[in-house]
Amino acid sequence: MATPVMDKVEAAAAASPYITATFRIRRFNPEISDESTWEDFQVEIDPKERVLDALHKIKWELDGSLTFRRSCAHGICGSDAMRINGKNRLACKTLIKDINPEKPITVEAIKGLTVLKDLVVDMEPFFQAYRDVMPFLVTEGNEPTRERLQSPEDRERFDDTTKCILCAACTSSCPVFWNDGQYFGPAAIVNAHRFIFDSRDEAGEQRLEILNDRDGVWRCRTTFNCTDACPRGIEVTKAIQEVKRALITRRF
Amino acid sequence: MSADTTAATGATDDVTLYDVDNPAPLIEAPRKRTKKTPKATRGNFEMYGWLFMRLSGIVLVVLVLGHLLIQLVLDGGVSKIGFAFVAGRWASPWWQAWDLVMLWLAMLHGANGLRTIINDYAERDNTRFWLKMLLYTATVFTVLLGTLVIFTFDPNIR
């Protein structure tokens, strides 16, 4: 009874955990061509590693010209949002074993923003929309001499939307944003929601007015792409609907 | 100098159009503040449009399903429909009002929906403008013609 178990353990230990995965990466270099092309890379890698590790391996060992953003590499900074197998994800939070490494894994830049090189996009329009909703605490009157206290219930009201890391995975998965890029996008609305429902903030009216505009919340088609894409699990579409409800109920 | 010249000729002979000094043009970023960027508006039009779609949708479910039931299923089905049947129904103000409300709600609901689709899918401002003009013309024409017919219907017409 004991012998076969021993054999199995030894066999598993002897077998290499490494597999050969193909990464099909959409390359774009404006200094070579105005067209982007798909390029395949074969990587020997442990499937329990992340897509970001594979990208590192390609950049460090196969092709140093591969360009992508990453900072913390642990799902907090929001730099490495990219479209992996057709879905917006953070490369540093996607394990290779979870996305079927038997087939080529496609990696491309997030959509709807101008590609500068390979996987790097111009995030400026995204941050412009973010700045437009005034993502900072606005209050009137004198500053209190101590902290602005808040009850746990009041904090709970907007807890979900405080988790946003501004990776643009939601905004660049939104079909309405893809069209002309004038829509504020889910990320800006999520960050407006974070202050609109904050009991300490006093500029909720102004933010609602901004989001009531032609390119504000009313362009949301509730396709739930943003909720699916969010690497932090924020219920983005729900937040947008709550802003809609606030806009309607303040007048009716 | 000579090395520079050979490099330059090499670049022109090459099939690629772009190099380090002459990169491919980038697509203009969306939301970039240009002269053509429309100013922020302060109206509630989009909100009322959104609300209208929800409310008229609920009413239309009743109106349209009732209409289909009466026209196609009850009392002999579609074979009974003729000039006399329509004339008989429009003799009653109730059915006149039903059809009038259904016409207005359905046309405005459909027009607003198509306006949304045009806004979402039209790529150029010109295309968007002319598609919307076509839509508004068709809507106004249909609504006015339908209203005219309902109010001026003459059952004794020859």
From TrEMBL, chain A:
It catalyses: a quinone + succinate = fumarate + a quinol. Binds 1 [4Fe-4S] cluster. Binds 1 [3Fe-4S] cluster. Signal peptide: none annotated. One of its GO terms (biological process) is respiratory electron transport chain. CDD domains: fer2. Its cofactor is [4Fe-4S] cluster; [3Fe-4S] cluster; [2Fe-2S] cluster. Keywords: 2Fe-2S, 3Fe-4S, 4Fe-4S, Iron, Iron-sulfur, Metal-binding, Oxidoreductase, Tricarboxylic acid cycle. Residues 154-176 form the 4Fe-4S ferredoxin-type domain. Its EC number is 1.3.5.1. Pathway: Carbohydrate metabolism; tricarboxylic acid cycle. The keyword Metal-binding applies. InterPro entries: 2Fe-2S_ferredoxin-like_sf, 2Fe-2S_ferredoxin-type, 4Fe4S_Fe-S-bd, 4Fe4S_Fe_S_CS, Beta-grasp_dom_sf, Helical_ferredxn, SDH/FRD_Iron-Sulfur, Succ_DH/fum_Rdtase_Fe-S. One of its GO terms (molecular function) is succinate dehydrogenase (quinone) activity. Residues 26-113 form the 2Fe-2S ferredoxin-type domain. This is Succinate dehydrogenase iron-sulfur subunit. It comes from Streptomyces boluensis. The gene is sdhB.
From TrEMBL, chain B:
InterPro entries: SQR/QFR_C/D, SuccDH_FuR_B_TM-su. GO terms for molecular function: metal ion binding. The chain crosses the membrane at residues 51-74, 94-112, 133-153. GO terms for cellular component: membrane. It comes from the Bacteria. Its main location: membrane. It is found in: Membrane. It comes from Streptomyces boluensis. The keyword Iron applies. It holds the Pfam family Sdh_cyt. This is Succinate dehydrogenase. Keywords: Heme, Iron, Membrane, Metal-binding, Transmembrane, Transmembrane helix.
